[in-house]
Amino acid sequence: MKELMLGNKAFARGLYEAGCSVVSSYPGTPSTEVTEEAAKYDEIYCEWAPNEKVAMEVAFGASLAGKRAFCGMKHVGLNVAADPLYTAAYTGVNGGLVICVADDPGMHSSQNEQDSRHHAIASKVPMLEPSDSAEALEFAKLAFEMSEEFDTPVIMKMCTRVAHSQSVVETSERVLPDTKKYEKNIAKYVMMPGNAIKRHPYVEERTRKLIAYASDCPFNRVEMADKSLGIITSSTSYQYAKEVFGDKASILKLGMVNPLPTKLILDFAAAVDKLVIIEELDPIIENHCKSLGLEVTGKDVLPLEGEYSPNLIAQKLGVSVAPFKKLEEALPGRPPVMCAGCPHRGLFYTLSKNKCTVLGDIGCYTLGAVAPLSAMEMTLCMGASISSIHGFNKALGEESEGKTVAVIGDSTFVHSGMTGLANIAYNQSNSTVIILDNSITGMTGHQQNPTTGYNIKGDPAGKIDLESLVRAMGIERVVVVDPYDLEQCDRVLKEELAAKEPSVIISRRPCALLKYVKHNKPLKCNSEKCVGCKSCMKLGCPALAMKDGKACVDATLCVGCGVCQQLCKFSALESQE
Amino acid sequence: MVKNIMIVGVGGQGSLLASKLLGHLLLSEGYDVKVSEVHGMSQRGGSVVTYVRFGEKVYSPIIDKGQADFIVSFEKLEAARYVEYLKEGGRIVTNIQEIDPMPVITGAATYPGDVLEKLEQLGISVDAMDCLSLANEAGSSKAVNIVLMGRLSKYFDIPVEKWEKAIRECVPAKFLELNLKAFALGRN
Predict the structure, then answer these.
(1) Engineered SS bond to B66: which of A77, A324, A501, B159, CB 3.0-4.6 Å?
(2) Using CB atoms, which residue from B45, B59, B106 is nearest to A372?
(3) Which of A126, A99, A102, A134 has the alpha carbon at shortest distance from A116?
(4) What are the b/e assignments for B130-142, b being 16+ CB within 10 Å?
(5) How many pairs of residues across A and B have Cβ atoms under 8 Å apart?
C-alpha cells in the first residue's frame, strides 16, 4: 500500500520489516521519531536510554546475543557514543547492528553543524545515506543484511530534510530472521591488545571488500542524461540537483557514502565532460575525487556552511532562478520563546534579577539566553554546565563562587551532568548547581527519562529520585523550589550562593505543555489599575504585550501561572474565576 | 507541473494538521507528494514553515524563493515574512490575527499593522480573513488551521466532498463535527 510517510517513520518501518528486535536510543532532533515510531510496534523492544553511549552499548549487547538491534541519535550524540562505535568496528556483530545518526545542516535545533561522515571514516564503519522516505525504509532493511554479511555495525545518516519530510513509501510485511546463536568467542569480542591487534587487519580487509562492493551495490546508481555535466551527490542535495538540472546533467547518486565507490566514480568521471560535486557541509566526496586525480568543482563555489537549496545550487552553478517580489521594510524577527507558563521562566527571572553568571546546558531552557531575560552566558554541549562551573570556580575562587550558577535540565543531568556533579563532590568546588526538573525531556518533544517514572510506552517504570541521588553523591545542601514562587526562588538562590560548600537547587514543576498539567483561566489586565510600568514585561512572556501604554494579556496563550502577578505592584493582573 | 504550497505561522498554531490534511488529500488524488515539516518543542512561539509540494514527480522537499503558488499564513506578520517565496502571480491566503513576536513584546520593534496593505501595493493577491473568529464560531480557537484549509480549497479544482473525506480521515472522531464546520465557514 502506498502512503505518505515521514522519513523517520519510514526508517522505523524499515526496522520493523527487517525483524529488528531491540531498540535503545536517546532523543535528539532530528532523529527522535525513528525510535518513537519503532515503539509503536509491539514486536520491537524499545527504550529511551540515559544517553547515546549507553544506547549504543545496549544495542551492541542485543546484537551480541544474536538479535537485530538499533540505536538512534543526533549528530552530536554520536560524539558521546563514539567510544563503543570505534571498537564495535573491531569486534563486528552477531545479529545485525544499525545505527541512525541524524545531522542538522542549517542548525534548526543544534549547537553545531558537524558532518557525521567523519565518524564513519574514522571508525571504518560503512555509512548509508537515504534521500527520501522510500529509501529510508529500503536502506534500513538492507543495512541489517549488510551488517551481518560484512560483520560490521552499519551507520545510516539522516539529515533534517530527509528525517522531517514526508514522501511516498510502499510497505511490506515483517520478516523475522532466525536468531543467531550466541557463542563464546573471546578472540572476537574481548578487545584487549592481544586480540584487538588481530582484529585491526580484519577491519582493513573488510574496508577493501566494502570499497569493491560499493561500486556494484543497490545503494549507488548512475542516471545518465546530458554528458556535458556530471554531478556526484547524495541525500537531499540529489533532490535539489534533479530539481535544478533535470535531464541537463548526468548524476552519480550515492546512497553509500562510506567507503566511497572508487571504480564507479572513475567510470562516471570518464563518461562526462565536467564533474561537479554537490554535498552539504564538508568536502568528503570532493576530496576523495581529488585524491583519485580528478578535476572537480565543489567547495570552490558551493558553501561549507548551512543547508543547500535548489536556488542556492542554481545560482552558484550559473543557472537562473525565478524572480520574486520583496518588501523593502525590515520585519521584526520571531525567534522561538519559552512558552507561556513555562516553569523555567520564573527561575531565569530570579537569576537575571540577581545578576548571576549562568553557565547553561542543552534544552528548552537554553532560551534563557534570549532577551529580555538574557540569563545564560555559556552553552557548550550536554552536561557541560556542571563540569564548567567547577572549572570556572576553581579558576576564580571567591570572585565567582557567590554569583555563578550552572543550570541543567532533568534529562540532561542524567545524560551527562551526573559525572560533572561527581567531580564537584569529589574535588570540592563551592559551586551552585540548579537542576531544572520539568519532569520530561522537553525540547525534543516530550520523551520520558529515568527521573520521570515512565518508560517510552508511557507505562510505569523505575524512577531515579534526584534528591537522594545528589545526596548519595556527597552533596549535603539540596533544596527544592517551585519556580512559580519568585520569593522562594530568590531567597533560596541567595542562601545557596552564600553557602561555603557545593549545593544543588532543584527547581521543580512539570512542563506547562504536558497533558496532565491543569491550567488556570487566563489572567486579565485591569486597565484602571495598570500604570504601564512594564514590570511584568521583564519576564518575556509571549502572552503579555503592551497595547496603548497598558499591559494586555493574550487569552489564547495565557495559562494563568501567576508569575507576572507577583511582579505587579498595582495588582492590575487579575485572576478570573 | 509541480505545485507548491507554503504553510507559515507561529509554532504551536497547528500547521502540522494542515499539512497532514493536504498531503492526505493530494496523495488520494493520485499526485506524487512531499511535505517538509518543522518538529520539536523548541520551535514553539517561533516562526515556522511547512512546505507541501505535489505533481507528477516531486524531487525537492522544500520550496525556494519565487516558487510558491500559495502562501497560507496563520498570522499576519508571517504572511509578509515569506513573501519572497511567492511566485509571480501566486496568492497569499492569510488569517488577520496579530501575535506579537518577542522583539515587539520587549519594545525593541513595533508590529507593522499595515503590512498586508503594503503587500497589495506590490501587486500581490492577498485573501485575508478573520480565521480566529470563524474558528471560535465553529467551537474552538484551535480550528484556525481548518478554517484556512476551507479558504484554500476554493482555489483548487477538487470537489468539496474529497476535502471533507480527508478531514474525516485526519482528525479524531470527537473533533470531526467542529472541524467540518470550521472548514465550511472558511470556504464560504
Answers:
(1) A324
(2) B106
(3) A102
(4) ebbbbbbebeeeb
(5) 194
Query: What's the burial of A431, exposed, middle or buried (CB within 10 Å: 0-12/13-18/19+)?
Result: buried
Q: Write the CA distances from A195 to A153, A201, A285, integer angstroms.
A: 19, 11, 33
CATH of range A2-214; options 3.60.10.10, 3.50.50.60, 3.40.50.720, 3.40.50.970? 3.40.50.970
Residues of B in contact with A6 (CB under 8 A): 37
CB spacing of B66 vs A161 below 8 angstroms: no
Q: Is A206 helix (H, G, I), strand (E, B) or coil?
A: helix
CATH class of the B3-187 domain in this structure: alpha beta
CB A45 within 8 A of CB A56: no
Tell me the three-class secondary structure of A404-461, residue by residue.
Answer: EEEEEEHHHHHHHHHHHHHHHHHHCCCCEEEEEECCCECCCCCECCCCCCECCCCCEC
CB within 8 Å: A336 and B110: no
* B41/A445 CB distance under 8 A: yes
What are the tens digits of pLDDT across the range A151-181?
999 999 999 999 999 999 999 999 999 889 9
Name the nearest CA neighbour of B36 among A430, A236, A470, A154.
Answer: A236
Q: What is the pLDDT of residue A40?
A: 98
CATH of domain A524-574: 3.30.70.20
Do residue B105 and residue A332 have CB atoms under 8 angstroms apart? no
Chain A residues close to B115, C-beta within 8 Å: 327, 331
Domain locations along chain B:
3-187
pLDDT digits (tens, 9 = 90+) for A473-488: 999 999 999 999 999 9
> How far is CA B9 from each of CA A63, B33, B43, rounded to the nearest angstrom?
44, 21, 11
pLDDT (0 to 100) of residue B153: 98
What's the predicted TM-score (pTM) here?
A: 0.97
Q: Which CATH superfamily is domain A344-508 in?
A: Thiamin diphosphate (ThDP)-binding fold, Pyr/PP domains (3.40.50.970)
Distance from CA of B88 to the nearest CA of A (A): 6
Do the beta carbons of residue A102 and residue A30 sit within 8 Å?
yes
- What is the rounded average pLDDT of the residues A31-60? 98
